[in-house]
Design goal:
Blueprint (H helix, E strand, L loop, with lengths): L2 E6 L7 H16 L3 E6 L5 H12 L5 H25 L4 E4 L6 E3 L8 E4 L2 H8 L3 E5 L2 E3 L5 E3 L5 H11 L4 E6 L20 E3 H9 L7 H10 L3 E5 L7 E4 L11 E17 L4 H11 L7 E3 L6 E9 L3 H10 L1 H4 L3 E14 L8 H12 L6 E4 L3 E7 L3 H11 L3
Parallel strand pairs: 1-2, 1-9, 2-6, 3-6, 9-11, 10-12
Antiparallel strand pairs: 4-5, 7-8, 11-12, 13-15, 13-16, 14-15, 16-18, 17-18
Helix pairs in contact: 1-3, 2-3, 5-7, 6-7, 11-12
The structure holds adenosine-5'-diphosphate (ADP), aspartic acid and magnesium ion (MG).
């Protein structure tokens, strides 16, 4: 007996049949004597469909209005699930993010949760109701609806588990756990019984969308017991926890991010302060710069290239071109269609052979590497997007899991 937070993603609430499937999972948990708080995402592809609908009206809508629109997807799901639970004969109430007490920072589209006012939640739980909360949304101090970024319902769930001191936070999805690579792309991917917060955070940040990276960050910070399970099959999933048993494994998993663009600032003077100028321009526009490469200076000039999210390419290019003279650069080279493939594992830091093995696998698959970046826990390469699935498979199969 305890308090359990259960989160169900879009495919898990796709249609009436799936909603009743979720209602049964929830009510079984309730019947076992638990308080249950449920977090749901928008049904199926609703969020993508809403984004398309907005584009039909305005190619550059304000972020505030986008959040008003996108938050409606989750509102549909909470009411439908509550109706299904009602029909099964259980006490239930649905709450929007705002009603559930989610207060966020002011920025629209990717707001962080600042606080959850739990009064209403506790009132409902005291009445022994199942509480169904809309994920992905909150309210900022201007009393405006905000959303938490794509995939953000996971973070809503973990945040609730943290403030309510839940005994467990279950993330129900359309795969039966966290795998060594996306099982939809890599056929040899293996399911992990458990994974550490640090490794999961790295995988999620490098593109493994099975968990929103901020949900993992938060679970680690507040010690939330978390697991990823299938909503369609009843079997054990993957536990995400502080430390996992020590194994010989060097690499825990591989991930890819297909949303990568590259910019090169060509012919910069080989002087101090040049990188400072380039990246100050990017920072001013709030552009997320990732991998950076600077060429060796030759004939008093050098090039700096770096990657940005594909959606920020135009903004970055514009900012640099406007300042071409001030930077003393010759020209800007911008290209959109790249992918980043990464290997992640806490055991790789003292093993130089790991990088060589990854590069060998890419060479054998005839994949050209454009950029490389390493840290203690990961190695990433930038490649052409057309090669990304082939590269993910090749790199995955080069290691033992
Ligand atoms: P939900 O709608 O339930 O939030 P998502 O689509 O956000 O589900 O995340 C689940 C998907 O994540 C899976 O269908 C799978 O294709 C993908 N995925 C990517 N990397 C992994 C991984 N390492 N392990 C499991 N699933 C992964
Ligand atoms: N519906 C939102 C999205 O599609 C949030 C989520 O699914 O977690 O990104
Ligand atoms: Mg998701």
């Amino acid at each position: 007996m305890g308090l359990i937070v259960q989160k169900f993603g879009g495919t898990s609430v796709r249609d009436a049949e799936r909603i009743f499937n979720v209602a049964r999972i929830v009510t079984e948990t309730y019947d076992a004597g638990n308080d249950v708080v449920v977090v749901v995402s928008a049904q199926g592809d609703t969020t993508d469909d809403l984004i398309e609908k907005a584009a039909e009206i305005n190619s550059n809508p304000s972020k505030r209005e986008m959040d008003v629109l996108l938050s409606t997807g989750e509102q549909i799901s909470i009411s439908l699930l509550a109706m299904a639970i009602e029909k099964l004969g259980y006490p239930v109430v649905s709450l929007t993010g705002r009603q559930a007490g989610f207060l966020t920072q002011t920025n629209y589209g990717n707001a962080r949760i600042k606080k959850i006012d739990t009064h209403r939640l506790h009132r409902e739980l005291d009445k022994h109701r199942i509480v169904v909360v809309a994920g992905f949304q909150g309210l900022n101090r201007f009393d405006d609806i905000t959303t938490l970024g794509r995939g953000g319902s996971d973070t809503s769930a973990v945040a609730l588990a943290a403030v309510l001191h839940a005994d467990l936070c279950q993330i129900y999805t359309d795969v039966d756990g966290v795998y060594t690579a996306d099982p939809r792309i890599v056929k040899n991917a293996k399911k992990l019984d458990e994974i550490s917060f640090d490794e999961m955070l790295e995988l999620a940040s490098l593109g493994a969308q099975v968990l929103h990276n901020r949900s993992v960050e938060m679970a680690k910070k507040y010690g939330v017991k978390m697991e990823v399970v299938s909503s369609l099959e009843r079997k054990p999933g993957t536990k995400v926890k502080e430390a996992v048993k020590v194994e010989k494994l060097l690499v825990r998993g591989v991930a890819k991010d297909d949303d990568v663009a590259r910019i090169a600032v060509v012919g910069l003077p080989d002087d101090p302060g040049v990188a400072f100028k380039v990246f100050t321009l990017m920072a001013k526009k709030k552009i997320n710069v990732d991998i950076i490469l600077q060429s060796i200076g030759r004939h008093n000039t050098k090039d700096i290239s770096f990657t940005v999210p594909a959606g920020q390419l135009d903004l970055a290019k514009e900012a640099l071109e406007e300042n071409l003279e001030e930077l003393g650069a010759d020209h800007i080279d911008a290209a959109g269609s790249f992918s980043k493939v990464s290997i992640v594992g806490a055991g790789m830091q003292s093993n130089p052979g790991v990088a060589a093995k990854m590069f060998e696998a890419l060479y054998e698959a005839n994949v050209n590497i454009h950029m490389i970046s390493t840290s203690e826990i990961k190695i990433s390469v930038l490649i052409d997007r057309a090669d990304s699935n082939k590269a993910l498979n090749a790199v995955h199969d080069a290691f033992e899991f």
